[in-house]
Backbone:
């Protein structure tokens, strides 16, 4: 049977995938579960797997709407239904037929992440001021884990909002580098607690590299969720039954669950540098 390219909109709780989205030998990952599900339902012959993801998520980072692309012997909706039967910790919320050469990583024009954290001990105004610094095109080399790609990035928006006892930080951009959102949030929280001045974050951003005397932490993965991926021309079809099944679990586990488990320790983990980090800062 001929294979066709299918785009899948997928959702998962970060706590279910401590090894992240990339396939790793001997480790449970988003890619590994998706490919295992396809094998179990006979969607693709062995050795002909071709999987792409729009966004690669770190261990502990959840997703409401990541996009995967696979080659399948099953029609889009049949594949989605079959995978939902075989994937225990991965939800397929939509499917669409796409061209043979479709790769979601290159086709996506925007990605939106949300970070959720407690408001206690933070100044909403200074967190928002720090977030506004990132909007535009910058060398964010000090706010990512370098992997050889250009560190000059465009950031479309950073929105800070109150949500009950929490703050939400929504970041939208065409693409992101490794750890970028978590490092941006760490800097914003450090400013919100009064540990760092807005001017210090501005100076680091302008320099494009860490500056001696300014410690900017990395926020934990548990508070971060990939909310959406925008891909022009791809129209996902999904069933109301799937939407109802997903609604409550995704809201609780992806947005609230991680915060409930970590509420008392999250800010301390974000803003307290380890001895190794202090040493590295002193050696800059």
Residues:
């Amino acid at each position: 049977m001929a294979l066709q390219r299918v785009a899948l909109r997928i959702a998962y709780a970060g706590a279910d995938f401590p090894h992240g989205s990339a396939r790793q030998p001997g480790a449970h990952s988003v890619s590994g579960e998706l490919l295992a599900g396809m094998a179990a339902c006979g969607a693709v012959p062995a050795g002909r797997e071709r999987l792409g993801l729009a966004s690669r998520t770190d261990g502990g980072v959840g997703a409401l709407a990541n996009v995967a692309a696979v080659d399948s012997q099953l029609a889009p909706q049949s594949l989605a239904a079959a995978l939902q039967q075989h994937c225990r910790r991965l939800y397929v919320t939509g499917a669409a037929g796409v061209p043979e050469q479709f790769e979601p990583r290159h086709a996506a024009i925007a990605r939106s992440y949300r970070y959720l954290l407690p408001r206690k001990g933070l100044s909403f105004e200074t967190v928002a001021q720090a977030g506004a610094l990132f909007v535009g095109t910058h060398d964010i080399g000090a706010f990512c884990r370098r992997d050889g790609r250009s560190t000059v990035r465009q950031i479309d928006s950073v929105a800070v909002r109150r949500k009950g006892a929490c703050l939400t930080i929504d970041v939208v951009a065409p693409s992101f580098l490794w750890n970028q959102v978590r490092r941006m949030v760490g800097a914003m929280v450090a400013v919100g607690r009064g540990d760092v001045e807005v001017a210090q974050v501005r100076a680091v951003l302008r320099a494009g590299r860490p500056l001696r005397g300014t410690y900017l932490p990395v926020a934990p993965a548990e508070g971060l969720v990939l909310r959406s991926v925008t891909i022009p021309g791809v129209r996902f079809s999904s069933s109301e039954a799937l939407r109802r099944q997903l609604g409550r679990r995704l809201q609780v586990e992806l947005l609230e669950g991680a915060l409930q488990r970590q509420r008392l320790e999250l800010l301390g983990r974000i803003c307290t540098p380890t001895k190794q980090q202090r040493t590295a800062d002193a050696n800059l």
Q: What stands out?
A: Residues 258-284 have pLDDT under 50 and may be disordered. Strands lie at 4-12, 52-53, 62-72, 91-97, 110-118, 136-139, 152-155, 157-163, 166-173, 224-230. The longest helix spans residues 240-262. The longest strand covers residues 62-72.
